[in-house]
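Hey L., structure's done. Input below.
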Amino acid sequence: MEPIQLTAAVVSIVNTSRIILEYMQNWARRRQHENDFDEDMDTDIPESTGCGNWDITVAVGLVDTVECRFWARQTSTDWWDCIVLQVWDDSQWLRNFHMRKTTLLELCELLSSALKRRNTKMRAALTVEKQVAIALWKLATPDCYRSVRNQFGVGKSTVGAAVIQLANAIIHVLLSRVVTLANVQVIVDGFAAMGFLNCGGVIDGTHISILAPDHLANQYVNRKGYFSMVLQALVDHKGRFTDINVGWPGKVRDTRIFRKSGLFKQLQEGTYFPDQKITIGNVEMPMVILGDPAYPLLPWLIKPYTGSLDSRKEQFNYRLSKCRMVVECAFGRLKARWHCLLTRSDRSATSFPIVIAACCVLHNICESKGKTFMVG
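Output:
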């Protein structure tokens, strides 16, 4: 390499890196205090020679001998450590995290193996409790990442990472245990008390608003004209999810989503519910699920009468509608608990279904704890 080319390389490095300049200045100051400094050395470079090999050697030496330094913004964790953990009562936990402190700690214990992190040389790892609290706060409130960061004294990227890590942990550890068909007879008795016999659940879908995805955005525009993702769910008599199907674009109709689901296949094969039939008149009626008029009429799926109705059909529709209110209320409580489902999510089309499914699991956990939902 020619001297003029070397000079251009050094000038480029100096101009593009303030750090190297700072190190060069510090190095010069240190050299003045060294005992073996050669006072007779002429450090001035003749103007006629330009910047030669000596300058290159010094610059490379400075880069090689620099001690590693790490920069971090000063933050405070006093709000979480001293106020939330020590002072807040159950009503404050319910208003902000939408679950009691005992429920959050139980959730931490269940997910500890999946969320526990090791300390590093740079910093101490967040505790499982704090990771879960950060994620739940972001899911339960309309706060932006910056606001959550300031609340908990962490980085903005840490907030986003906590949400997706909690969602993944919930899916792998709790989904199959929490979103499942429990005691079938209790469910049947619950719907019978509402006026419909041998019913094992109610199915419906709801649209979750999202930002326009980068790929195939037109497929996510629903019939109301906004971008969305569909959550289709089967619920029991208490509004707990027993089966969910999430991730379909908003343009896809409920019927197609249902026919493509694993639930449809199991119901068609008769393997989802036990073989429990009742006789009404001269007809044997298997265990059924209830749906709105958008769903197909099948031996195991009942939907309302349409068209001209007599009093008998109106009475039938009334009872069916009364049972179907359960799933509408379940979706309402789901979105009221987890406000991230009410606003347009900035999550990608691949990661947001995981967050939605995690919210469904959290919904079931909260529902199982009794009346922990605060309407206000």
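Residues 188 and 200 are 6 Å apart (CA to CA). The two ends are 74 Å apart (CA to CA).

-- N.
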